[in-house]
Each structure stands twice: as structure tokens, then as C-alpha cells.
Amino acid sequence: MNLKLREIRISKGISVPKLVELSGVPRRTIQDIEKRGDCMLSTAYQIACALNVSLSEIYYEDNAED
Prior knowledge:
Layout: E1 2-3, H1 5-11, H2 16-23, H3 27-36, H4 41-51, H5 55-58, E2 59-60
Antiparallel strand pairs: 1-2
InterPro entries: Cro/C1-type_HTH, Lambda_DNA-bd_dom_sf
Organism: Massiliimalia timonensis
GO molecular function: DNA binding
């Protein structure tokens, strides 16, 4: 599974600094998540809450066509 954090953040018009403020997740962590596409579940939950989306909305399967 990978996170589609960047796509959701941009679609909501939220900058990285604003997401840091809303979620309490460090800027470097958010940047790393957007680059790698994965993170700890607890961090994903914090970010999902800050973006007002469910965990299932920010995760997508690697093999979506299966």
C-alpha cells in the first residue's frame, strides 16, 4: 500500500507548513512520506485527521488492477 498524501493535500489547497500545523507531524516527515509513499499507521492517522479524510482515502493498493 502507498499513501497518496500529496495528491489529497494539494486538492484541498493545503501547504506542507499548514499540514505540519494541523497534524503536528514534522515537516521533514511529511516530505519523506510524500517522497516514499509510506509511513507508520499512527502518523497516517494523524495526517488523515488533519486533512479530514479516512485512512482508506489516503491509502491505495499497489496492485489496484488485481
